[in-house]
Amino acid sequence: MISHLAGNGRVLLTVDEDGVWTDLFYPYPGQFQNLREARLGLYDVGGRRFAWLQGETGWLARSAVLDRGESPEFRWSGDGLVLTVEDRVHPNHDLVIRTLRLASDRPRELRLFAYHSLKIAESMYQETAYVDPDRHALVHYKRGLYFEFFSDPTFTGAACGEHTLKGLQGSYVDAEDGRLEGRAIAHGAADSVLEWDVHPTPGHPALVRLMLALGRGPEAARRVHQYVATGGAERFEREAAAFWRGWATRAWPELPRDLSDRAKTLYRSSTRVMRLATGTNGAIIASPDTTSLVVGGDTYNYCWWRDGAYVSKAMDEAGLYQQAQRFLSFAQHCQSPDGSWVHRHFPDGAIGSTWHPPPFLQIDQTASVIAATWHHFKRAGDADVLLDLWPMVKGAANFLTEFRDAETGLPAPSFDLWEERRAIHLYSSAAVVHALERAARVAEQLGKDPERWRQASRDYHDRALERFWDAAEGRFVRSLSPRDDRKDASTLLALKLGLLPPEDPRFRTTVDTLEQRLWNPTQGGLARYEGDSYYGTENPWIVCTLWLAEARLALGDRERCRQLLEWAAAHATATFLLPEQVDAATGGPKSATPLTWSHSTFVDVAHKYSRAQVGAPSEED
């Protein structure tokens, strides 16, 4: 499971709870995942003993969580040795910095090894790895992507080899006798090992800085290497640490005193996750987690427009205006000619995979982008941004106005926000109502005529209340055409978007009913809907629980809102990452971890809770 993230909007590195590299994305967060395997090994020359640093070989891994922006420390210990590992990514150079400190209880002659098997552009083959003795580097490349390993001090040995094909295990085998003897170049399913001869003594640990320069082409990677060679590895390590420490201690909004320290730490972690999940081109990935590839055959490494829009709004709340604006620009780039957005996109803007038949629509996603645009203007206050995004808003609003079911007068059938059912959905309809009203406000701000969209919003709203409210049952139906009566937490999100005012008795009745039926009696937290079987049976979801928190806050119950915020904080991982779901049986994280939407929802609700504490009037989204 992912324990640590490091990135800069182009490079994104994920590290597991043992300090092992798991994913290396480049040239965008979420695209491509270029790492097959990485491992560290130690050879005791005097004792003639070798071990890869893995739990089954007797080494114990521990992580130290720090709360000031520093990277977590991962420590491997065994046989009187302690290896401390820290991983950083430089903020403006495509450079990964892995700092290794090896302490010993007595003077020793040791050899440290680092093995890397890449799958550049997500393919293990047609790759080249070679040692460049003139540059003191080891380079992996394929097509236009280059990965150049170097170090301070310079490595004392290097070998390239192959894995997988021809019955070969991998060049890591070459290290297990304590001395590298392999080739200086390999191709195909290529991999490599680096070696350092180190001599730690008590009180004087050996220090190795392993650096990885990434580039789109050989000159780009070499240029980063040359920068480091000129300025010194220690300087670049210091710059990376200082930047992220300063970023984490920036002027955050004041959070209420009655929130726990854990909740406040989670808030800061959540803003960092949002920042790292956003590419320099504005794409926001749902999660860097790739473990769903084994279970579901695909990953969460895409930009969904609903997720991205909600993340964008939370970034605006936290003052990350530049990242929010980049997302909106990316959305404008990816918009379909008819004004809509299809299911999801790759981080480079290409249309992503889908299981929806044409036209690949979840109509609430198109609505979400409009709403995020207005919210960004409210927070950043720059009318020039609205002017730039006006063609996007106009196209999307016109599409939503015309995407109408002839029989009901509601938005036509599309897939729901859970991506499972094609119908006319309550939440999707509420999202369209909300978006068209926001589009009208954008038009007004720019001196355009808002009436067509405002009237369409009112018409959709009236029809939604008429069609979805079952007066005989005293509750909302979640879908029509076909009708689906199951209770669904997304109804809370429809209320959030203004389907009903909190003073309407149906608002409280709906909230009470959903909490009573979908609340998990063992672990707490709110399930998505009755009968949900995704990764378990009615697992609590972070976003659903936080929607309940916001609904309770709207009803004036600050204490219940606080309790639910604390529930989310309690179910973050040891390094303050929020999963998509919580296992209903164990209470542990389930499915994608971290989920960017979970983090953004925590940030958003924390801000609403904070405003309510000081008596500020509630604000519309």
Brief overview:
The chain is α+β, with helices and mostly antiparallel strands and 621 residues long.
Describe the structure.
The chain has 3 domains: 36-58 and 76-248, Beta-galactosidase, Chain A, domain 5; 252-279 and 502-610, no CATH class; 281-485, Alpha/alpha barrel (Glycosyltransferase), CATH 1.50.10. Helix content is 35%, strand content 24%. It contains 15 helices and 29 strands. The chain has a 9-stranded antiparallel β-sheet. The radius of gyration is 26 Å and the shape is elongated. The relative contact order is 0.09.
| Structural Rg | 26 Å
Q: Major sheet: size, sense and barrel closure?
A: 9 strands, antiparallel
Shape: elongated
Number of helices: 15
Q: Fraction of residues in helices?
A: 25-40%
What is the oligomer described by this structure?
A: single chain
What is the CATH domain class of the largest domain? Mainly Alpha
Biggest β-sheet: strands ordered side by side in the sheet:
7-8-9-10-18-14-13-12-16
What CATH calls the topology of the largest domain is Glycosyltransferase
Q: How many DSSP-defined strands?
A: 29
**Nearest-integer average pLDDT:** 95
CATH architecture of the largest domain: Alpha/alpha barrel
* Beginning-to-end CA distance, first to last residue: 34 Å
Count of spatially separate domains: 3
User: Which strand-content bin applies to the residues?
Assistant: 15-25%
Low-pLDDT sequence parts = none
